[in-house]
Amino acid sequence: MQDNENRPYQQCTRCIMDTTDPEISFDEKGQCNHCTEYFKLAPLYIYDGEKGDQARDALIAKIKEAGKNSDYDCMVGVSGGVDSTYVAYMAKKFGLRILAFHFDNGWNSELAVKNVENIVKKLDIDYQTWVVDWEEFRDLQISFLKASVANAEIPSDHAFLAATYHLCAKYNIKYFLSGSNFATEGILPKSWGYNAKDVKHLKGIHKLFGKIKFKTYPLLGFNREFYYTYVKKIKMVRLLNYIPYVKEDAMKVIQDELGWVYYGGKHYESVFTRFFQAYYLPHKFGYDKRLAHLSTLICSGQITREQALEEMKKDTYPAELLAEDKEYVIKKLGMNAEEFETILNAAPKSYQEYPNDEKRLKFIYKVYNKLRGR
Question: For residue range 113-146, what is the model confidence (pLDDT) as tens digits?
Fold first, then answer.
């Protein structure tokens, strides 16, 4: 089996990452760079008992102090998924005054909507929704699909970040609590995507393939991010890095206490994301994000390698659901089946084939992170 013309297939002997990541490397034991890097960084980002408790208590105190002159101590983005739901649950447990924020890009599943409604009702927290202009967003999303790049989720990811900062500034909130975390998301190959913050890349692809000018689509860019973080002093915090986060345990808690219902896979609360991760990426690029997700769970001790390999054998996208989702995506994007199949079967392209600001942004963020002491 070969993943490209020159390199034989190989899979890590410690996690399950493999050569579908073209940049993967292995040591003499057959262990890959991803899990090696994970264990190197884990002491910095994984909860470690009493020391972690002290760091968390200090953080909560800072958040409360920063919010004393505002209506809210923090904002939490709620998608209806496990991570964000558990963040909201724990933030409430810690006594924080929360503004829940939901980003609606038009692709929410009915189950995700119900989960969000349950979360805000049972936690008794205020709730704000950001709804994107569908025609603008659809045009941008189609542009990325036509560009044939791996990260077709950039239109959502970029807008979510921009909306997050905008709403924090609007409500004078200094802390945004993110559901992203190291324990379950510490591994993700860079070759499988690209930086969603790159405005030059986003605008470049839209200019080549789009038809509708931006009027309301929220743009971020480094200058705006610098303004929000240095002038408005808004901080994004990964709360789950400060607590013992075991996904299976967290799911049970939110099911029992919030009436949360599982939707079948990581980030599957969105119909488009489900189609993107379970079909578009594997079919077009050979990327299966389950490899990264399960490898992270192996490294964090939440599952064994054998369990991960068994999980990979399961069909997470039954033919009936795939057909249903595919039809829905085509119709919602306003395309016909032939046009959509042409896009799906077009040759994959790298983000580097389109305008991008990668080199400049790498330099800027290197300096930026040094200034922030990171």
Answer: 889 999 999 999 999 999 999 999 999 999 999 9
**Position 34 in a domain:** no
Provide the domain limits for residue 259: 49-371
Residue type for position 270: S
Contact by Cβ (8 Å): 260, 85: yes
- For 15, 52, 84, 249, the CA distances from 299, given in Å and listed in that order, are 7, 19, 21, 17
The answer to whether the pTM exceeds 0.90 is yes
Task: Please indicate, yes or no, if residue 4 is contained in any of the structural domains.
Answer: no
**What are the tens digits of pLDDT across the range 228-253?**
999 999 999 999 999 999 999 999 99
Total tally of structural domains belonging to the chain: 1
pLDDT at 349 over 50: yes
Asked whether residue 314 is assigned to any structural domain, the reply reads yes
Q: Is the pLDDT of residue 3 over 70?
A: no
Measure the CA–CA gap between 196 and 181, rounded to whole angstroms. Answer: 18
C-alpha closest to that of 173 among 119, 237, 223:
237
Report residue 85 CA to chain centroid gap: 14
What are the beta bridge partners of residue 207?
none
Run of H or E residues at 199: helix 199-209
DSSP-assigned beta bridge partners for residue 355? none
User: For residues 201 and 150, is the Cβ–Cβ distance under 8 A?
Assistant: no
**Range with the lowest mean pLDDT among 29-38, 301-310, 355-364?**
355-364
User: Considering the domain boundaries, does residue 19 fall inside one?
Assistant: no
